[in-house]
Amino acid sequence: MRMPRTILVLTLAATVAGCSDIGLRNLRAPGPGPDEFSVLPVKPLTQPKDYAFLPAPTPGGANLTDPNPKADAVVALGGSEAALNPNTAIPASDAALVTASSRYGVPANTRQVVAQEDADFRKKKQRFTRLRLFPVDRYSQAYRRESIDANNANEAARQRGIETPSAPPLE
């Protein structure tokens, strides 16, 4: 009589343990999630130098305090806002870079293609591990061969005579 109860208790414990949350290592998204780029801070209000030369208001148009992240990033990296105009030609200093980076073409759906290839890769890696009694870290399981061991890479570089920075001690 004690043996069936023990088996029942162990089965219940294993079932409850299998329902635990694995947190951020879960590779399947629970939903679309929030859009972290939908809220942008506005620029501070500034007083114009001359009120006589203010532009006419444009209903529904852009405001001087509206955020423009693309233009702000270009200016922060040393470019000019004029370069963002699609009618502006590519500057001569950037022509070689643009030619080299687009020599194989620039597909518009790169993110979708990479996401689909990654989903196919993970599906292939999970083929024989769908049934499990206990929760498994799917991320480590799928990408084990693609991970880089920092200590091994550091040692390999040292063997080739490449100077490397000091690495943290092995754990």
TrEMBL record:
Residues 144-171 are annotated as: Disordered. This is Beta-barrel assembly complex subunit BamF. It comes from Ruegeria conchae.
